[in-house]
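Check out one such.
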Amino acid sequence: MNGYIRGFWCECWTEDLTEAQQPTLRGSFDAHSAGQADRWIAIALRTITPALDSRASDEAWDWLYEGRIETRRALLCSESCTVTINQSGTRITWTAQPVLFLPLAHRQGFELPTCAHDFKPHTRY
C-alpha cells in the first residue's frame, strides 16, 4: 500500500449553543487502531463526567456502557463516528474518521546539509 498507514483522526470540538459562533477545536489525536480511537473518546468522557450536570452525565455513561460497543464496531468497519454530549448550553463532540497516514521523512540517519551548522541560536541579553 505504498507505505501508508491506516488509522483514525480523532477530534474534540465544543460549541456554545447560546451564541452564533463557530465550534472550537479543543484537541486532536492520531489513533493507529479502532481501539485507540474509541479509548481516546472514552477517557475524555470519563475524565469530564464529574463536572457534568446529571443529564449530560447520564448521556456520557449511556455511551460508555452501551454506545461504545456500536462505535467500536463502526470503527472496525472503517466508518466515521461521532459522540456528542450537551452540557448547559455547550455541545461537546468527539469524532473519529478513518484516514491514511503518510510516512514522513525522518531526520535521524540522514546527514544534514553543511549549512545547517552555520545557524546559531540567538542569545538574549
